[in-house]
Protein 1
Amino acid sequence: MERPLTKNIRPGQEPLSLVEYEQAGGYLALRKALTSMSPKDVQDAVKASGLRGRGGAGFPTGMKWSFVPLGEHAPKQKYFIVNADEMEPGTFKDRLLLEGDPNLLVEGVILAAYAIQADRAYIFLRQGYTLAAKRLRRAIAEAYAKNYLGKGILGTGYNLDLRLHTSAGRYICGEETALINALEGRRATPRAKPPFPQVSGLWGKPTVVNNVETVMNISPIIANGAEWFKSLSRSVDGGTKVYGVSGRVKRPGAWELPMGTTLRELIEERAGGMQEGFRLRGIIPGGASTDVLLPEHLDVKMDFDSVGKAGSRLGTGTAIVLDDHTCPVGFVHNLEQFFRRESCGWCTPCREGLAWIEQTLRAIESGAGEMSDLDMLAGQCRLLGPGNTFCALAPGAVEPLQSALKYFREDFVRHIKGKKCPWK
Amino acid sequence: MLTDEEKSEIAEELAQAERREQACVEALLAVQKRRGWVSDENLAEIALLLGMTPAELDAVATFYSFVFRKPVGRHVITLCDSMVCWSLGLNPLYEHLKARMGITYGETTKDNRFTLLPASCMGACDRAPVMMIDNDLYGPVEPGAIEGILRKYT
């Protein structure tokens, strides 16, 4: 099986240097694009591949790029930004990619920037990824030294500057308009949309923001073509996916597998199944802001449409397992504590609603809940749902809560009637 | 007063920035790297270099969990308290650290050696439970291993 994203990754070792990366076929795609393809050709190749964004929302990448105005009347200054602000609980796939093959990311950045005719690019890296930062700095410096970055790249007229920005720790920076504010040096609250960043982004200029894993798919797609990309997958969504499993499994980890691999294969084969003495009770399939699934969903394919049909989202593709020794109310309370803390406070439903949810769950967990709290929580899930807030933080925050209320209602009731947590 | 070294690092960041205020996080961290935190006085000086008002800069500084606006110890211990670490042993780890150091979240030991803070997901869920000390990540951490880890930080 081909693993275009992780083939160069050698666990426990330094990533490939630029020279080694070139020897492994690196930068051939860039050479091909700059010498024989127009920006529009690169966009079309990505569009034809059907690549969908790997940061959680699954928006088609080629379409995202196509909203950027090109041609002589378009603004000259444009930006390409990599979203490496991986902070969603349960998500650790981009860490693996950033630490493991920074050159593949840099090549993807240059290709994507060329496709939208940006002459300045940024990698927005989260706080605490210190090893990734060090390795990215080296990959960028080596790319400048070989003129893959800078002026007149590979003897063409194309110029690109790439800068690494390391953030100082705030989940909302992963929201693309908040990220743009953060990069401008402002408080990182999201912006109202429209206008979308592709038209008015960083300092009002056309800007595309793509996730790390998305960008790392670009070079393989340009090198091998759309049909090859689709053939990697076991589903309608093309390509591979870096999946992860964490929680009480025998071998937590992240693996690049065909898009459409089932939850059962991930949890039982890759992660080795549950640890001795623990039973699987639930799965959060794609990072903290996705609806809970049950063991009956193990045969669901992990692709955008299949997980959607099962009532959740593929999200980041990194699953968290809930075991039978862990209190589901405490589990959801912990999640909502995260979202409450990380809410930027800009819009009222999120700032006030998440605080209310978190305090109510805390009360239920400690035995002070009332039956009417359950209806109130369900009501909050609707009020914080899509369309009522500036960004997707609050709608994402209530996804695991609404499904926990549905699937684990008995456990909530036991807390309330028994006036204590049965797990304590 | 900012040192010449701090000013020159901020100047380097400014030289690469498209607009002066863009360098604000880098500038704050350049000072924090040397002093552990950013005082009101330092913040006002940085703001001047960036062409921002102190209030504008503080609005950014206080937004981030890892720009410290209060003094911290020589080393900062952060415990990931998000879901996976929570379900795989955060609490025993926290209880152990609390008892060992006599401090709770947000506090600094009397000898000014350690500050203990909670942190949102560190993106190392396959190694849960995890903690960071300064720039170093540890995981999975058993309470019994803590003593040996702390010894490296004097």
Protein 2
Amino acid sequence: MTGTEAGSYLDSLIRVQAQPPAAHSSPAWLKQLRARALERVGALTVPTTRDEDWRFTDLSPLTRLSWHPVQGAPQLASADLERLSLPEAAARLVFVDGRYAAQHSFNHSGLTVANLPAGMAEHGASVEAHLGRHARFEQDAFTAVNTAFLHDGALIVVARDAVLEAPVQVLCISTQKETASYPRCLVIAQPGSRLTIIEEFAALHQGACFTNAVTEMALADNARVNHVRVQRDSEAAFHIGNCAVSLAHASRYHAVGIAFGARLSRYNLNVLLAEEGAECAIDGLALIGGRQLADSHTLIDHAKPHGLSRQLHKCIVDGSAHSVFNGKIMVRPGAQRTDSSQSSRNLLLSGKARVDTKPQLEIFADDVKCAHGATVGQLDAEEVFYLRSRGLSDAAARMLLTYAFGAEVIGRIGVASLRRRLERAVQAQTSRAA
Amino acid sequence: MIYQDSRTLLAVRDLRATVNGTEILKGIDLSVRSGEVHAIMGPNGSGKSTFAKVLAGHPAYAVSGGEVSFDGGNLFELEPETRSRRGMFLGFQYPIEIPGVANSQFLRLAYNTLQAERGKEELDPLEFDDFVREKMKLLEMNPDFLDRSVNEGFSGGEKKRNEILQMALLEPKLAILDETDSGLDIDALRIVANGVNHLATRDNAIILVTHYQRLLNYIKPDFVHVMDAGRIVKTGGSELALELEARGYDWVSAEFIASGTPKAEVGA
């Protein structure tokens, strides 16, 4: 694939996506943001496996597909919505094929949880200050395309010292095959506030589709955000997600990312510990089989002293699937007393499964504590025997151990109904594997 | 206890087994009848634990000769899980930790698997909770251990109590307890031994594999067997354990070699 062809591929994405008429009434700064992003789309190309960051993830199958415009009104059947709903949710925003579905959304949270165009009326200045500022599109083709089409999106503003215990759910559902959607989410957590947000990407079809999602989160001083991201796209889907998080003084960000779906998924999570005393915990689980590829690239950027980061990334890989993890920890000059640990643990369930895992530490301060480790292995024969000696069949023993491997990450999700739903999904998938 | 009307639960004849091509068990003969408690003692490396694992079906060991009948059937035709479901239980020397699986979930799964096998009713989580808490009292276990991951972060004594708890739930016909006393302080030893004594009936049998005599102060064996270099070299009553405690193991091996037993191939 040459750069020229790649460029034309991005152009073709642009052509198929028409801006909604309402985009013309956007504020001037947003029009300018889109225009700048569109300009970058023209200059950037789709990355190839010659790019170090995309070494294992070949996007050429994506560029061979063509997409249709989304048809009709955004609409879900109530049974489908019911299946994905969380009883605990204080608010829910639903996007169907990238478009806001007001009739499926609700907000009892007392906070701003709204579609972007509506929410901007009240929070114009702070949206302007954050939107497109954290997820940089200058060098990233997919973020640029998403930003060029920026219209509908989730906007969550948690007011100063507001504490919302119940989660806010953002559901992005693909209902139409061969379409591309560009989910967007912006979270602004003001000083001292607390929020749990569940972002979930799912498909109601088994066809190809392309999800290109961008999420930005700005945590002000002492804010706390729990962020759960569940990717369960169709098995033929392409999913590219970018999430950029900025942490101010003593703020805390906890992420749990679960990836089950998609033929090819790539998630880039960049967390900037921008001020002193910021903390983050990043947990990830990929559970894939068949010919799936799940690629997770994370960057934890310690820019200031006394930052703390904890990361656990797990992959369960079956069939001839391939998981990729690149975990970069950056400790910038002056970011003294940084305390960072990273663990990548991988379970191979078949001889053809493949894992590429790479911790990448770049440390430019001398008074820091950084630990990392990676393991790749199969189920432990002693553990399997222990369970069989208690009457469990070989298959049941393997299933339980595989389930347990994933449950460690799922157990870190603070929303009980989602945890149960994901545990069932892991059980279903592991029993299929066993 | 030795009963007149007992039946043979385990009959081992000339059992040989290898690991990675090396013969570890070199012809074991043993008969265990219902109601009996047997102790298998011997120095480190004598093959005691291997014998226990071979009986339970550990995949690392290959049976290279001999026969074992368990409760009237050929043991070696049974998968490890089938041996368990037919009433064999191995209490592990080093119980495995399983992070991510709640102990209660594991115990209930094992219990219900057995109930299904026996055509009996399975218990739902609430029913099982009541049932297992009752059993835990026997071992003076804190119910908190139900919510923790299987054996994860348990002390040595807690792990062994958890093993005996599984024995209490599964009510095996033959329990083989491999070094159950190792790593136990005196209180834990007493509790575990009380649990085992409580579970011993005239219908089941227990094989204690142990290096030291002290467990036998609490659980009185009907037979004591001494293993050396992959064979049982001496069998006696409970008094033999005391003699071993006083004199060590060397004299037994020496006596065995001197006796010129046909199966002795020491040095071969």
